[in-house]
Amino acid sequence: MKRHLIERYEDLTVTHSFADESGQIFDCIPVRQQPSLKGTDITVAEAPDLPSPQTRGDAAAAQPPLRPDRADMHGNAMWCPPGTIPVRRITIEEMTRFESLDDFFLKSPLDAVHKYAHAAQTVDNLGGRSSINLWDPAVGSEIFSLSQQWYAAGSPVQTVEAGWQVYPGKYGTTQPVLFIFWTPDGYKRGGPGSYNLDKPGFVQTGNNWPLGGILSPISIAGGAQYEITICYYLSQGNWWLYVGGDAVGYYPATLFGNGPMASNAANIDFGGETVDKTAWPPMGSGAFARTGYQQAAYHRAIEYFPITGGSQSAQLVIDQPSPNCYTINLQSGQAPWSEYFYFGGPGGANC
Question: Within a domain: residue 264?
Answer without folding.
Answer: yes
